Amino acid sequence: MSVQAPPAPTVLAKTPSRWERANKATLAMLGVTVALFVGFGIGADNFLSFDNMSNLATQVAITLIVAVAMTFVITTGQIDLSVGSTVAFVAVGTAEMLKAGWDSSIVIVAALAAGLFWGAVNGWLAAYQRIPPFIVTLATMSVIRGLAQLWTKGFSVPIDRRLYVAKIGEAKFLGFSALAWIALATVVIGGILLARTRFGNYVNGIGSQEESVRRAGVNTARIKMVTLMLAGLAAGVAGLLTAARLGSGSANSGQGFELTVIAAVVLGGTDLFGGRGTMIGSIIGAVITGVIANGLTLLGVSPFLTPIVTGLVLLAAIWLNLRGRTLSELGAKLLGRT
């Protein structure tokens, strides 16, 4: 009679700790944010005042709106360098349409449609024509701003402050501008899309293992195109709000804006090479860029120093991104989980 061997013991997979699941770069940048608030709060008497916090929220709002969409783009392993030019094009278009006597409601729809159109152009060329997004958006960045400059001949187009669109830039609720509340709503929607929907799962999957996602039956080209369309739409919103806030449309709006947005997303811990996106991190990154500019201004420091400081912080963030695994292993050792 044969003797049956006892069953092999079941090996239970160890549940990752909260530290192991956490985005180390985001935690590091959260610490940087706290340090900046403390430092500028000590150095500038009115930095932590309610009026300045309200002003800071308005300054950060436009960057944050586009950073939410850029989080999806970068998480899929793409990039969009044309958002600054789209902001300028939509701002100019908004001012020109209002000047021509168009109703504000039609202007708002047209402005958003213009941003969505340029996002679709980028998406179609990058996703379906297989042109690298960096090259596509570098080219459209020049084309879109060139069209805005051709449209206005380089002149700023004023907006009548009595019009509804202009009033959006001046509206406030509970002490904060309408721009800040729109940015907050954008963050909530973006966070839900990224973390709670199938679309968000596809975005993360494409950035890390695109071929596996494609073999699972997902139209990866369509997902990548949609993310670039979201970036275009967000830039359209930003362009409309920029015109409303400044009371004019200028082809020079958004110069270098794309770098600020990308910096905010990467600073927050979204992997520059795709596969790991964090909406909370994008908020932190946008706040950091805004706090640096705001705090240095209050301290009377030359505005030319702001991009230098922001660039150095960005380099530090990329360094943390590339060494996230090392930080994770260090944390595991400290917690005795190796």
TrEMBL record:
Subcellular location(s) of the protein:
Cell membrane
Record's InterPro entries?
ABC_transp_permease
What Pfam families would the database entry show? BPD_transp_2
Superkingdom of origin? Bacteria
TM spans, by residue? 25-44, 56-74, 106-127, 134-151, 171-195, 225-244, 280-298, 304-322
Does Cell membrane count among this protein's keywords? yes
Bilayer topology annotation: Multi-pass membrane protein
Q: What is this protein called?
A: ABC transporter permease
Tell me the keywords, alphabetical order. Cell membrane, Membrane, Transmembrane, Transmembrane helix
Q: Which species expresses this protein natively?
A: Actinomadura nitritigenes
